[in-house]
Structures are given as C-alpha cells and as structure tokens.
Amino acid sequence: MLRRPRRNRKSIAIREMVEETTLTTKDFIFPLFLLEGKNKKIEVDSMPGIFRLTTDLMLKEIEECLKLGIKAFDIFPVVDEKYKDKMATQSANEKFFYLKALKEIKAQFPEACIMTDVAMDPYSSDGHDGIVDENGNILNDETLEVLADMALAQAATGIDIIGPSDMMDGRVEVIRDVLDDNNFENVSIMSYSAKYASAFYGPFRDALDSAPKSGDKKTYQMNPANKHEALIEAELDADEGADFLMVKPALAYLDVIHLLKENHELPIAAYNVSGEYSMIKAAAQKGWLNGELAMMESLLSIKRAGADVILSYFAKEAALLLKK
Ligand SMILES: NCc1[nH]cc(CCC(=O)O)c1CC(=O)O
Ligand SMILES: [Mg+2]
C-alpha cells in the first residue's frame, strides 16, 4: 500500500499537526438571559446550567467569562407579561430595565463586545417578531419602523452589535439608515440572514416566555427544506449593509453555513440554538452520551462547516475545557 492515511493519525503530536480546524474561545458569543430586579438567578428548566440573571449577577457572570477569554455576549431580556403589548412599546423605552442594564454593563466592561437582539417577540403580547393584524398576518413594512426604533434605543446604550432576528424583509437597510442618521455608524449589524422556522427554539421560548400566542413563524422564518433561498437572503443582507451573516440553527443547517461561507466574503456566524444545547444536556444527564465530548464535537463541526463566529450556550463550559 502506497498510501496509508492512518500514518497521520498515529500519535497526538501528528494528529495535532495535521488538524484542519481549531476551535478557540475567541470564536464564541455567549447568549445571556436578563431578568428585572436584583440578586435573582432562575435556572431555565429546559436548559440545565443556563440561568436568567438580574443585572448585578450578570455583571459578575460577564466578569468571570472575560477572565476565561469570552469577549462577546448576546443579551436577551425576560419581559414580564404586564409590560407586553401589540407594538412592543417597551423595547424602545430608555427607562425600561433592559436598556438601563445594557448601559450599565457596557459602562462597567467597555472592552466586552455586547450584542443585542432586534425582534418584537420578547416585548409583544402576540409573541411574534412583527406586528400582527386582525387577521393574524404579520405586517412587514409597518414592523420595520418598530425595529428601527428598537435598534436606535439599543445603540444609544453603547452596545457594539445589533442582531436583527426578526426575518422581516428590508430590515437591515432600515436599521443601517437609522443608525447612520444618528451618528451610530460604528455600531455593527449581525444579521440573522438564514433563520429557519425551527423546532429547536423551544427552550429559548421557555426561557423568555415568548412563544407565539397563535399561529407559527412560517410566513417569515425560512422553510427548513430550502438551501438556495439562503443565498437570496444573504445577498440582500450583504447589499443592505450587514457586517456579519448568520445561519440559525447551526447543527441541522451545516450545509447552509458552508454554502454561505463559500459565497460571501463577510464573516459568517452560526447560532447553536437552545434546543441543540438541551438535546446534548438531556442525553448526558441520562448517561446516554458523553456531554463534554458531544459538546466539543458539535462546536468543532460548526466551525469546520465555515462559521467564523459561534453563538452558543456552551460557550462558558467549552471555554473552561479549552483552558485546561
Ligand atoms: N426572534 C427572537 C429569537 N432570537 C433568538 C431566538 C432563538 C434562540 C435559541 O433558540 O437559542 C429567537 C426565537 C424565535 O425566533 O422564536
Ligand atoms: Mg431577509
């Protein structure tokens, strides 16, 4: 035999030498769930090890993560039902707890990269990412105004990256315009470009209590059957001024991550979503698979597929392992 691929696997030294993909803590953005109030920490039942935190405790968590080398965080507010309405009004109220918290976090850790989510669902009494009319339709262009106000209010807190996750058409352009018109030309946009209508968001909707009150998100989030349509979404977002293109979820969509990486020069992000986290956690708790190995293999596969940036609830655990 002239060629024996096993020779390049014969020792750790050689295996490491020929390794094609290296996962590092710098790849991660750690999503965090923000609670109103003080000194409260509530675990998400369907996401063991993930907690909703009040601002004071989140500051401590961010400090710990920074020491581990995690430099970027995506912050999602848990909004009490009494603050929700049809127009997601509280999303742009500078006195509302989440905007005050963002300001505090950014002031305390200016070196941290703070990302926020733009979509109506956490603040909406309908639990949808856009405005719902009397017939249950999600209104695209009317929603854009709400998203622009929300993005501007978030930018005013000093955060670094706006993450539109709503899948309305044209929102990247509208957000870019409003940011630029208000001297926030240095605030980045990480667009959820190819965001699929996925069952894997279930635990996240538990965490925020943000599930749609009626219907589903299939008229705006993408059909899991479609790959080439992701190229249209990505091209539009790139043209409209996005700084990053995101694919979400990650593991069931590695082909889409690869496709976007091959076709775009912009950095590609992938969101390793809540359900992907919970599946591994649940199986590990049952002793059905080795949770640490499954976690690292999944994260590595997302990077190998072409992701430059990985949003993952595993970020802290993986950073601890990578440090060892
Ligand atoms: N638009 C809100 C939003 N932003 C991120 C996620 C999901 C993240 C996860 O599952 O971890 C969702 C849920 C949804 O679209 O229903
Ligand atoms: Mg789009």
UniProtKB/TrEMBL annotation:
Quote the CDD domains the UniProt record gives.
ALAD_PBGS_aspartate_rich (cd04823)
Ordered alphabetically, the record's keywords are: Heme biosynthesis, Lyase, Magnesium, Metal-binding, Porphyrin biosynthesis
Q: Which reaction does it catalyse?
A: 2 5-aminolevulinate = porphobilinogen + 2 H2O + H(+)
Which EC class, in a word? Answer: lyase
Q: Which residues bind Mg(2+)?
A: E233
The pathway where this protein functions is: Porphyrin-containing compound metabolism; protoporphyrin-IX biosynthesis; coproporphyrinogen-III from 5-aminolevulinate: step 1/4
| Active-site residues from the entry | K195, K248
Q: What is its EC number?
A: 4.2.1.24
Extract the Gene3D superfamilies matched here.
Aldolase class I
Q: Which GO terms describe its molecular function?
A: porphobilinogen synthase activity; zinc ion binding
Q: Which GO terms describe its biological process?
A: heme biosynthetic process
Write down the PROSITE patterns for this protein, in alphabetical order: D_ALA_DEHYDRATASE
* Record-level GO cellular component terms: cytosol
Q: How does it assemble?
A: Homooctamer.
Q: Which family does it belong to?
A: Belongs to the ALAD family.
Q: What is this protein called?
A: Delta-aminolevulinic acid dehydratase
The organism named in the record is Marivirga aurantiaca
Q: Which gene encodes it?
A: hemB
